[in-house]
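Notes on consecutive records. When two proteins share a document, each keeps its own sequence and its own token line. Never mix them. Below: protein one.
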Amino acid sequence: MTDDFDNEGTVPLPPIPKVTPKKGQARAAARLAAVQALYQRDMEGTELHILLDEFHRHRLGAEIEDMQFAEAETAFFDDVVRGYVARAEEIDSLLSSKLADGWRLQRLDKTMLQILRAGAYELLARADVPTAAAISEYVDVAHAFFEPREAKFVNGVLDAVGKEVRR
């Protein structure tokens, strides 16, 4: 297991994903950024208003490590991040109920956990987004960070969440 802190004592964001959203996919970029923002908040405890400001100013649509990211739909990004924070206990409880016996959220990879949290929030609160589309989008985010096996895990958990909250 690697140390989660860099030499300066701060927590780095998850690594730049293997793929980035294609141009014109503002919601896909917003979802990816929301996962990264939730990761930062979880690891560093960054206050919400500071976190959102940082992402608005320096990350959404930015070029990082010679990779140009698509412009993100800022309002959608804000809603996912704020929405999870506002409903964290409810969402974490829901996700916990979908894990196999003996598994706890704390046992999951930190990036994986944020993907599930953002996806669960969207399934709970964004009725304007079809269930299959929301799940598919977060599976795509998982593919950016993980191998296919982990992406299938995201699909399974979010599918179970969707079946419960969107009857």
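Protein two starts on the next line and is unrelated to protein one.
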Amino acid sequence: MPQGRANAVTPAPLAPRPPPLAVTAKLVLFVALALATLFYLVMLMRGARDVASRTEPESPTSTKPNGAGAATGFVANFFDTLGIGSFATTTAIFRHWRLVRDERIPGTLNVGHTLPTIAQAFIFTTLVPVEARTLIAMIAAAVLGAWLGAGAVARLPRRGVQFGMGLALVGAAALTGAQALGLIPGGGSALALDGSRFVVGLVGNFVLGALMTIGIGLYGPCLILVALLGMDPKAAFPIMMGSCAFLMPVASARFVRARAYDRGAALGLLLGGIPAVLIAAFLVKSLPLTAVRWLVVVVVLYTATTLLLAARRERDAEIAVGAQADMTP
């Protein structure tokens, strides 16, 4: 051995190149993400023109982004990137400060958090090598579920939205508490699904995509799903982020078409969310989140209670109006 080379560091062997099929599938996925982004932007601009063409007056807070919406988007998407869902957090903030009417919250969540979620999808799909067929099939299942779910949610009356969001938040609080207590299954090391597990994964993600349109985030349930199927828990990130990145533009289109969202609040979430994702993913990367999770549990349960009570008041008012109408000669 030549002098001076005894302490030289042996170069690490190069990582094996992925098979051409995996490269092609990932490239197709990224192109599809770009097209989904373009579709979302076009849909958002058409929605803006629709608002501008209305004859009825609109309050400035419902058409223009504001500081409260941007701050909400930053906080929610920062923690979403680190593993705490954004929907429950955003709903709690909207309800506490009365930023968005209850019946418009599901649509606002989907429209406002779409671009930050697409940014997360690009990042995590690059970092975690989930098998292409599993990733693409589970994303497609979630998108189909969201398309069907958004159509139903956009037509729900105010009381139905309040009741649905209340139950969704209770579920979100339970999942967040399970994470804080370490009760989420540990999972395995698989990065692909086959046979019956593949079918269960598709059905599960279809249901989660539909539920997301009412306001329950996909992260916690998706983490449990992939763990129960024996996959590496890290696989939940590209599956969840990819699912949301594709299903949210689809769901958003239906909410925008039905005018079932608050445009100003949604734009605020978008503007505040993108820098939060980049900071959390590339600068912070991880934090001890147990205390934050318990805080989210308390706040979300409180918000769920107020929504369910509001739904009951709406029901009682409808019953009273119906009884009065029956008594009128």
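For the record: The longest helix spans residues 290-327.
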